Here is the input.
Amino acid sequence: MIDDYRSLAVFVAIADTGSLSAAGRRLKLSTSVISHHLSRLEERQGVTLFFRSTRSMSLTPEGQIALDPARRMVSAGEEALDAIHTGNDEPVGALRIAMPAFGEQSRLHREMWNFAKAHPMVAISLECSDVPTDLIKDGFDLAIRLGTLSTSSLKNRKIANFDRRLVASPDYLSRQGLPEHPQDLAEHDFISVTQIPSRMTLDRLGQSVSFEPTNIRVEVNTVHAAKAAVLTGLGIWHLPLSEIEKELASGELVHLLPGWALPVLGIYAVWPDIGPQKALTRRLIDHLVEHRSKLML
Here is the structure.
């Protein structure tokens, strides 16, 4: 019976993530173990639960019938584990977390390490990338995302804010001139980050000006690369204040249009409320919210 329950949990993970490898990442099992449990379940029940192709797996009619009861079983098991962990003062387990690639020395990262230091029985696997991740398919328990969130089935909680500054290098400004009003930006070169909308809004004393750069000199896919391009003198871009405080203080970068402000953006914890680490994930989120005053980027 225990094998049946374990195999049904594997079945649900495959249905949710769409592949054996993704289910393995979620359950922290090898692909071969996932395949073994699925094959054993199908053999014992005498049915085929998935149509298989080289690129995807989809439920058969028998699999569709079995999915909801199996999901209820897994949910009941997770509820029981949550109840156990709730009464446990010392959390135990492992968390796989996705964060932006920039800001490795940020207060947000340091607070992650403080959580790990305070709870020695919790193992943390942290992957940093500016490329968006699929939390369920890639097996992450939690992601930190910046800006505004699109609608999804994932749960989210705002944990802090972060400020940005529109900046350029002195070398660039010596060649192209210093913009004195948002309308002057139309004559300037810009850096673009693939995942970040290029349109920006500047506010001053109740006045709001929206602007979309047309002279994109360089397009990159990370904030680190955008910062490097700006420092080299290739154009203008808005960067998180925590990433450029030293350069602003040293004069390597110049804050443009200081009388105008870019909107403050949010720092969000995003997570799928599924899997055996639900209680541990929420505990980390509560820790971050408790220390939110330290997390400004």
